Fold this protein.
Amino acid sequence: MNELQPEDEYDLVIVLVRKNKLLPVFNILEAGHGFKNVLFMGNNSLGFDEYVKHLPAEKVLFGFPGAGGGIREQVVRYADREKPTGRRRTVTIGELDGRNKERTLAIKSLFESAGVPLDLTSDIDGWLKYHVALVSPLAGALYKHNCDNYQAAKDKETLRAAVRAAKEGGPRAQGPRF
């Protein structure tokens, strides 16, 4: 199946779409009354107001997939540190109100039964904001060197600035672990 239909019924819909591409997704999700829970995963430092304008707050929860990627030549490139002898990156999710509900625990169990580790956070909004505060300086250091991580690694001044900027974002006990 290539798309959700309004008459479809799902216990969980996982949305992995860049935030600036969400409007058409909201239209599809609003039409689907059989979608019990919608997990939005990705970078988000602006809060959840836009989401709850389109969907009831009790249907939505948020997270981060614990991996990265991008689009190159119309192809999504996904990066995970999974190796034959290594662990997968941890997925992090949380509820708007910070409580672990029955559905939160069921989703955690679902991911873990598929071999994907999952952490629950009581402050998903703070977690996502801290993630942006951590990643933005690192991305800036890479862009300074035309995305050449080897050149960026040799630039000690830029690396020190990136670390200072990330620290300025504030330490959070529940923030991303890398």
About this structure: Strands lie at 9-10, 13-15, 34-35, 38-41, 60-64, 68-72, 75-79, 91-94, 118-120. The mean pLDDT is 85. Residues 9-121 form a domain with the Rossmann fold fold (CATH 3.40.50.720).
